[in-house]
Amino acid sequence: MQVGFTLKGNKIELRGRRDALCSSPLPSCCQMDARDKQLLRSLRLELCTEVLVDGVVIQYLYQEGILTDNHVQEIQSQTTSQRKTMMLLDILPTRGPKAFDVFLDSLQEFPWVKDKLMVKREEMTVQDPAVSVCFA
């Protein structure tokens, strides 16, 4: 299967195997900020225990065009809530520069998690405002 992306209106539709996409760099205009990728990675286990993505989270991300039908089905096919959250955290970094902010917006039912992510993000910006390393 060929891996790539297609521009549909103002959205980028990724196609192909997700694991193959992760090893293929997206154009810089389509990548999540390296700081946000690092933040999601550093809090991965904590997010898996505190966030239930089954409800509002994935539906909001779908509504806002961050997730596709295939992403939602792939997430919902996971057997536990932790695996569903891990799958979402695997997909989010591939969904473009707005994915992190929309993810924050989706955390309406988890305000303490949203607050923690925002504080950690700000701390990372203060520590190194010119983070330009890509954490794939």
Detailed description of the structure:
The chain has 136 residues and is mainly alpha-helical. The protein has one domain (32-127): Death Domain, Fas (Orthogonal Bundle), CATH 1.10.533. Helices cover 54% and strands 7% of the residues. Strands 1-2 form a two-stranded antiparallel sheet. The model is unreliable at 17-26 and 131-136 (pLDDT under 50).
Summarize the structure.
With 136 residues, this protein is mainly α. Helix content is 54%, strand content 7%. It has one domain: Death Domain, Fas, CATH 1.10.533.10.
The number of distinct helices, counting runs of at least 4 residues, comes to 8
Task: Summarize the main sheet.
Answer: 2 strands, antiparallel
CATH A-level architecture: Orthogonal Bundle
What name does the CATH topology carry? Death Domain, Fas
Count of DSSP strands: 2
- Range of strand content: 5-15%
Shape: globular
CA radius of gyration is 14 Å
Class from helix and strand fractions: mainly alpha
Q: Give me the strand/helix succession.
A: EEHHHHHHHH
Distance between the termini: 22 Å
Strand order of the largest sheet: 1-2
The proportion of residues forming helix, as a percent range, comes to 40-55%
Mean pLDDT, as a whole number? 80
CATH class descriptor: Mainly Alpha
State the CATH superfamily name. Answer: Death Domain, Fas
The figure for the number of domains is 1
- Uncertain stretches: 17-26, 131-136
InterPro entries: CARD (IPR001315), CARD_RAIDD (IPR042148), CRADD (IPR037939), DEATH-like_dom_sf (IPR011029)
Organism: Grus japonensis
Protein name: Death domain-containing protein CRADD
Pfam families: CARD
